[in-house]
Specification:
The complex is a heterodimer of chains A (about 80) and B (about 325).
Chain A lengths: L3 E6 L4 H12 L5 E4 L7 H8 L6 E5 L5 E5 L3 H8 L1
Chain B lengths: L2 H5 L3 E7 L3 H12 L4 E5 L5 H4 L3 E2 L9 E2 H14 L3 E4 L2 E7 L2 E6 L2 E10 L3 E3 L15 E2 L2 H4 L7 E5 L3 H10 L5 E5 L8 H12 L3 E4 L2 E9 L2 E9 L2 E6 L2 E4 L3 E3 L30 E3 L11 H20 L8
Parallel strand pairs in B: 1-2, 1-8, 2-5, 8-19, 10-17, 11-12, 11-17, 12-13
Antiparallel strand pairs in B: 3-4, 6-7, 7-8, 9-18, 14-15, 15-16
Helix pairs in contact in B: 2-4, 2-8, 6-7
Chain lengths: ~80, ~325
């Protein structure tokens, strides 16, 4: 189980809903950064992902290494949070 | 494979591939008939409808409905009757007579009937710069990525309902949008009237008969769109580009299966929405001849469910897991 999960989202993003739904189904908690409510954190999302898009999911593992998943990508998200 | 091994394969009455409006509607009908139903969704539940800002032509919503809300309500309704949605992918279908064998990301499964409802995704335009700058200034989902363009300028490429609808949505973030249209605006009259208000306000400029040639990047970000209008080169200096130029069918996984496709990759079916494989049905945007509307996808889903019920009734009793 990861140490920490942060998801950058917006209000209207259907793929963000899917990431949250997946993590909830797996019983995993997460911190959500809604960029509509916190537009000042856009640059942080961009610098983490290299892409102007959401969702961006940042998985911090127990050894403090980090994995950044751009979009709703189950092939990467599932192993990252396993 | 021996009989014991076959018995170990999870078996369902119906497996639906996709969980967009067509499949969710079908699942509402099948589960209400006590037909056990499993849906596989590899992308977003609700399909393209879920990433569409507003759907204005879906009956019953006089003020339109947000695509994400409609998708979530369809999901809730299907799940209320017992539909199970698995987040994963079907990679192959094989006809074994009474059962269809499916290879999935959750392993091998069998179903008495299958509904293909994988829908479509937005098509690429195929110009230089499009792939290289994807996610760094080139986008296909306004509701996902529009928020990154507060106070910036955009080009929206396309002239159909999606392009016009999403361009209007994006004006809530941007200072100006160049709407680059290959021929003429094909959006509905109502959308065109709405669009005119944004044109009058100076938020959107329409460029008809303008063919996009290249998306040019500088320092890994979009700098401008190069195009041709009346034989002359033109350019639009913008911070980002959103592309809505039609739909591409999600049928790649069927390429090596016996399911027959038409020349553009849509699934062929008869008047019962059944494919050439008995027990394998199709509904929604992925069906050859579909009208690519949420309302018609919902109708096709209901029809397919009733035809699946007829098909199952003509066969053995539903499976008991």
């Amino acid at each position: 189980m990861p140490k920490n999960i942060t998801i950058f989202t917006t209000n209207t993003c259907g793929y963000c809903v899917m990431v949250k739904k997946y993590l909830t189904a797996k019983g995993l908690g997460y911190e959500e950064v809604n960029l509509d409510q916190s537009p000042h954190r856009q640059a942080e999302a961009l610098s983490l992902s290299g892409a102007m898009t959401v969702p961006v999911t940042v998985v911090t593992k127990n050894d403090d290494t980090r994995e950044v998943i751009v979009g709703y990508n189950l092939a990467r998200l599932a192993p990252a949070v396993a | 494979m021996d009989e014991a091994a076959v018995q170990d394969i999870p078996t369902h009455d119906v497996i639906m591939i996709g969980a967009g409006p067509a499949a969710l509607s079908a699942a509402i009908y099948t589960t209400r008939e006590d037909i056990e139903t499993l849906l596989f969704e590899r992308g977003v539940i609700g399909g393209l409808a879920a990433v569409t800002d507003k759907i204005d032509n879906y009956p019953g919503f006089p003020d339109g409905v947000e695509g994400l809300n409609l998708a979530q309500d369809l999901q809730k309704q299907a799940e209320r009757f017992g539909a199970v949605i698995e987040l994963g992918e079907v990679t192959a279908i094989e006809d074994e007579g009474e059962f269809k064998r499916l290879e999935t990301t959750s392993g091998t499964m069998r179903a008495r009937a299958v509904l293909i409802a994988t829908g479509s995704d937005y098509k690429k335009i195929g110009v230089p710069g499009e792939l290289e700058l994807y996610g760094r200034g080139v986008h296909y989902c306004a509701t996902c990525d529009g928020a990154f363009y507060r106070g910036k300028t955009l080009a929206v490429i396309g002239g159909g309902n999606s392009a016009v609808q999403e361009a209007m949505f994006l004006t809530r973030f941007t200072t100006h949008i160049d709407l680059v249209v290959r021929s003429t605006i094909k959006a509905s009259d109502v959308l065109q009237q709405d669009l005119q208000k944004f044109v009058d306000d100076g938020k959107i400029t329409i460029h008809l008969g303008t063919i996009t040639d290249e998306i040019v990047g500088v320092d890994n970000a979009v700098d401008k769109v190069m195009a041709t209008k009346d034989g002359q080169k033109v350019e639009f200096k913008v911070d980002g580009v959103f592309v809505f130029v039609g739909l591409s069918p999600n049928s790649q996984f069927l390429k090596d299966t016996p399911v027959e496709l038409d020349e553009v990759g849509l699934v062929l079916s008869n008047e019962d929405l059944q494919t050439n494989l008995p027990g394998v049905f199709v509904a929604g945007d992925i069906r050859s001849g579909a009208t690519m509307q949420v309302a018609s996808a919902v109708g096709e889903g209901a029809t397919a469910a009733l035809k699946i019920r007829e098909y199952l009734e003509g066969r053995a009793h539903p499976v008991q897991n």
